[in-house]
Here is the input.
Amino acid sequence: MNVLAPAAAGPQPLTRTEHAAGMAAYRAAGEALAAEIGNRGPLRLTPGGDLHPDIQAAYWRHGYYIFEGVIDPAEVAALRADAQVMLDRAPTGPDSAWIPRAAPPMASTTPGCPTASPGRSPIPGAAPRRSAAATRRRWPSRSPMPGRPNTSSS
Here is the structure.
């Protein structure tokens, strides 16, 4: 006879504040552990221009090394802003005809960058594109073997 045990009490739902506090503590513990590992720091080179042996050793010991301060904070902010623009203009589904979260797609609003269409190059002044069928290589119906004359009658 199968008798089911009473259901165990599941985890209690957290409030947003409790969840944020738990995540902050988790992140702080992870950052403290990461600082102890010794696989992060500035880019250091030897006088000969090679990667410093300490960095190489940390890489081989842990499988990765985190370079700090390599990219300027202003450049990181600009890259994040550009990535957000791309995300805002990304389609919302496979059948998306219009992007509701932002402006029209970049190609249609960028000066000098026409919307791509069949047979039209998106690069101003470039030659028209040919279809895949037009660019297929035409092979002879019968090609001679190397070093032998072609004996085909065609």
